[in-house]
Amino acid sequence: MTAHKFLSCIFVFAFVFLIAFYAQPALAGSSGKSGEVPLWELGMGVAPLTMPSYRGSQTQEFYLVPMPYVVYRGDFLRVDREGIRGLLYETPRLRLDLSADGAIPAASEEGNVREGMPDLDPVGEFGPSINYLLHKGKNIRMRLRMPVRAVFTSDLTFLDHIGWKAHPQLNIDFTDIFGKWSVGAVIGPIFADQEYHAYYYEVKPQYATKERPAYRPEGGYSGSCVLLSASRKFSNLWIGMFARYDNLSGAVFSDSPLVETRHSFMGGIGIAWMIGQSAQTVPAGP
Length: 286
Description:
The chain is mainly beta. The chain has one domain (3-283): Outer membrane phospholipase (ompla), Chain C, CATH 2.40.230. It has 2 helices and 15 strands. It has helices at 3-19, 194-201, and strands at residues 36-38, 40-52, 60-73, 77-80, 83-90, 94-103, 123-136, 140-154, 159-166, 169-177, 181-192, 220-233, 237-247, 263-277, 281-283.
């Protein structure tokens, strides 16, 4: 296995770990006490996953990877349906936390649009997020989330900052519908600076060809995305699925020769078997 393929496996594993929590049940693993849930839950499973090499690429990658199911509801560190985050400030309606995201590496292989260019290394994102509760009912919750993240790339021998990214979004969650399923939707635009866009869509003069002219993108609008998810937890089994669609129409880099399509799709299904949960319980989250 090449080093690049090994890194791909690591980051796909981490990516599944993050993305799976878009489909986590809001009150997974009830302990039986009213309003109480376990402090932590642990499971392990598998997830088939498909995603483009990068947004705008026609190359679709397919993976079957192990998927951890981890829920931790601490006072500061929380791992749940919103990913891995550190809680900084919280009121009944307003919350400030730290959030993370990432993207898989992509090889510039012979025959694809990036042939002869450097490979794309794994990308990680980390930064604060402001979350405002718009509405909360018996089976529905609507929030406005505004994450702003610094973006880094690494091949485990270096760490480079490659820009900033913002993704304001409307988040709608339904619980206990269609027979105890939890369903969620996320929709919103994406913005990023020039440095981030250049990492994916710039063609430097030394890599320009007749079919791939030199190109330098600007910072600004980076397209929009819609994500739908559904999940359900049975006694010792969790099933979750998600589908994400990105539209790059109007993006400031849409005329880059590295953009082969303005439509990107990502999706996956996860099945996890419960290993255990804590005897200690905490109040269920908002």
